[in-house]
Write a structure and sequence with these properties.
Keywords: DNA-binding. The protein has six helices and four strands. It has 131 residues and is mostly helical. The protein has a domain at 81-131. The longest helix is centred in the C-terminal third of the chain and has 30 residues, at 84-113. The protein is elongated. The termini are far apart. The structure holds a DNA duplex (9 and 8 nucleotides).
DNA sequence: CTTCTCACA
DNA sequence: TGTGAGGA
């Protein structure tokens, strides 16, 4: 099938499909005219890529683990045992990221609730809109 | 009409 | 990642 059909069947944009290819996640053959020809199995590959991308993994990591992933009908499962450590490492990375955002939010909360030394303008504004 | 590459107010 | 140009 050509890129248009694969896009329709997976919900991925043609743009994304070409991007996945550039990242080595897909390697469609070409017609003499240069049109990309995808295999039926690529539909699943694209779905897996979308799942992993949504799970916060980058294309480089996906490229490594994709061949070890197996479809369970429900979702994806680790096809190789030596995959778990890497997956857990990714999980840890996401946790770090969340912690960073949490402290950022706490800091911002502090700024939002802080009382300015000279609050005349601030209070005038509050008074104006609270009536 | 569909796809391709390349470039970017 | 979207979008549009310019071509096949």
């Amino acid at each position: 099938m050509r890129i248009g059909e694969l896009a329709k069947r997976t919900g991925a944009s043609e743009r994304s499909l070409r991007y996945y290819e550039a990242q080595g996640l897909l390697s469609p053959s070409r017609t003499p005219a240069g049109y990309r020809i995808y295999a039926e199995s690529d539909v699943d590959v694209v779905r897996h890529v979308q799942t992993l991308l949504a799970a916060g993994l980058n294309t480089a990591f996906i490229k490594e683990v994709l061949p070890c992933m197996v479809d369970t009908g429900e979702g994806l499962a680790p096809g190789c045992p030596e995959l778990l450590p890497h997956l857990q490492k990714e999980r840890a990375r996401i946790t770090m990221s969340i912690d960073g955002l949490a402290t950022a939010r706490t800091l911002l909360d502090g700024v939002i609730s802080a009382t300015p030394p000279d609050n005349t303008e601030y209070e005038a504004w509050v008074a104006r809109r609270t009536g």
